[in-house]
Design brief:
There is one protein chain. This protein is α+β, with helices and mostly antiparallel strands and 546 residues long. Helices cover 24% and strands 26% of the residues.
Length: 546
């Protein structure tokens, strides 16, 4: 009966210790939200399908909602790295021993903390050096040692509160700065606690910095290949830098997972197709098209086959289309700086800020002007005098006088089109100009959803020594300044100016003043010396040379 009571007391102690090990939000710097990954079905709970893990949007969403309820995962604790600051619970259960004068059962509980030199002071055992041990090793050493040292029926040793430490996360995250982490947290958890990725951030070239060494991580492999090496656990002193993505491309059409993906500089179109799950039945792999705007703002349409995909390098902003074998080939296509639909003189229409592509059904006698009418003509962003036609029959590029044809509707400038012909009206590359107290002033490609702060980051960030963050303006062509907020979105063509701190301007002016004053003083001093010398020795020198 006494043994039964001891078992009940021990079970209650274990339950209490287990409950104390569950993480709760206790007012720390960053809240932790468990991630729901299961769905309820009639037959119970099953894992929710997650197709297209390589998709930028999917990864961004998964990282923004990390799973941080880890203490219940015993398999993780098996390889737990002992860390200074860990808190453990030691539970001892002893039964009645009348021969020793003890007639009752008791349970003793001790709270132990691992010191900075990796040592643990254990009751009845003394100081234990935990260097180089795993959690199971430490538990075995303490349990076996106590059982050998004192008469006890039950010994349990468990981790109840992992150590906490700061990790600095910066770059392309929504809340850069220090987050509170523990040894069970990973790089993905840290980015999630920093509120996830910003638009345009890299998830395939993340830098983990520890003890002066930098490791490059591609966390897409964690999701697509279950590669845990690219999502390591964090250690005290870690820093995580999320750089801008160098190449982001979109693929649509007959692939398994259409969408937007990040590519590394060494990767090709074949990699993009692989990330998108490959071709699906009905893909016309011999006529893949890449829509590209080059550095000069000229719009290009590149036709290639899957045989060339491995040697075709991708550029930032490329859009790939894998057509279907069942698509109607009897079309004339036009793309670039067009409105995309018929314009009515009475109905206002938004000017597209991205290139538009439209396939227009072919009919005998269709002309360039017919096509322009169908898409509303060129937009104000069109470089119309550089428009061209790619003939389907010959593959030749023929320059078109689109600007004059649209203005005059002169039949002499019109031309007949045929099935498969492709018209391109190049579009200006929309930019935002960043100047003033930034590290790399200049033009930044315009993106509608970017804020003023993000444009400043693309310009290398502000010079913290001289920049006045309360004096950020847009400058009109007439020179008028309009104050901007860091979280404000702005139209294309905006000129952002970051003013210098007033103290710096004064200091610089004073430096210039003292520089000029010193120069004048030096010149006056030299002239005074020459004049004094001449007054003293001039007459004698004149007589000497007579």
């Amino acid at each position: 009966m006494g043994a039964m009571k001891i078992r009940i007391i021990v079970l209650l102690a274990l339950l209490a210790a287990g409950l104390s090990s569950v993480f709760a939000d206790n007012g720390s710097q960053t809240s932790r939200t468990p991630q729901a990954t299961d769905t309820q079905t009639a037959g119970g709970t099953t894992s929710a399908p997650q197709p297209g893990f390589g998709l930028q949007a999917t990864i961004f969403d998964r990282v923004r909602n990390p799973n941080t309820n880890l203490m219940s995962n015993v398999s993780l604790l098996a390889n737990y790295p002992l860390t200074p600051g860990d808190v453990y619970t030691l539970t001892l259960g002893s039964g009645a021993a009348p021969e020793l004068g003890n007639t009752s059962q008791s349970v003793l509980t001790f709270t132990l903390q691992l010191s900075q030199d990796m040592k643990l002071d254990v009751p009845y055992l003394g100081t234990v050096d935990a260097k180089g041990m795993t959690l199971p090793d430490l538990k075995r050493k303490i349990v076996d040692g106590i059982k050998r040292s004192i008469p006890v029926q039950y010994v349990n040793f468990m981790l109840t509160t992992p150590a906490e430490f700061n990790v600095f996360v910066y770059g392309g995250v929504n809340a850069p700065g220090y987050i509170i982490a523990n040894p069970l947290d990973t790089v993905v958890d840290a980015i999630g606690l920093a509120k996830g990725f910003k638009p345009g951030a890299s998830y395939r070239n993340i830098e983990l910095i520890h003890d002066g060494k930098t490791e490059s991580l591609d966390i897409s492999k964690f999701y697509t290949e279950a590669d845990f090496a690219v999502n390591p656990r964090l250690k005290p002193g870690d820093e995580i830098y999320v750089p801008p993505a160098q190449i982001v491309a979109t693929i649509v059409g007959k692939v398994a997972f259409p969408g937007t993906y990040e590519l590394l500089p060494t990767e090709s179109l074949a990699t993009l197709i692989q990330l998108a799950g490959g071709f699906v039945p009905g893909a016309l792999t011999s006529r893949i098209t890449i829509e590209r705007i080059d550095a000069q703002g000229v719009h290009h349409l590149i036709d290639i086959s899957d045989q060339e995909a491995g040697t075709t390098k991708m550029l930032m902003g490329d859009q790939v289309n894998v057509p279907s074998t069942t698509q109607n080939a009897e079309v004339v296509s036009i793309e670039g700086a067009v409105f995309g639909k018929v314009r009515s003189g009475e109905t206002p229409i938004v000017v597209p800020r991205e290139p538009v592509r439209v396939d227009i059904p072919y009919f005998p006698g269709i002309t360039l002007l017919n096509v322009l009418d169908e898409v509303g003509g060129p937009t104000p962003f069109a470089i119309a005098h550089k428009s061209y036609l790619t003939e389907s029959s010959t593959g030749k590029h023929i320059l078109l006088a689109v600007d004059k044809l649209w203005k005059t509707r002169d039949p002499a400038l019109d031309r007949r089109l045929y099935p498969g012909d492709h018209v391109v009206i190049p579009m200006e590359t929309l930019k935002v100009f960043v100047t003033g107290a930034v590290l790399t002033p200049g033009a930044v490609p315009y993106q509608p959803d970017l804020t003023v702060e993000e444009y400043l980051l693309f310009a290398g960030g502000v010079d913290e020594n001289i920049a006045d963050l309360n004096a950020i303006y847009s400058v009109t062509p007439g020179g008028k300044r309009i104050k901007l907020a860091l979280d404000q979105t702005i139209p294309a063509g905006t000129a952002i100016y970051v003013a210098k701190k007033p103290l710096f301007v004064v200091n610089q002016s004073m430096q210039n003043f003292f520089l000029i004053t010193g120069w004048v003083t030096t010149v006056v001093g030299v002239l005074g010396t020459v004049l004094s010398f001449w007054l003293s020795y001039g007459p004698a020198l004149s007589n000497l040379f007579k």
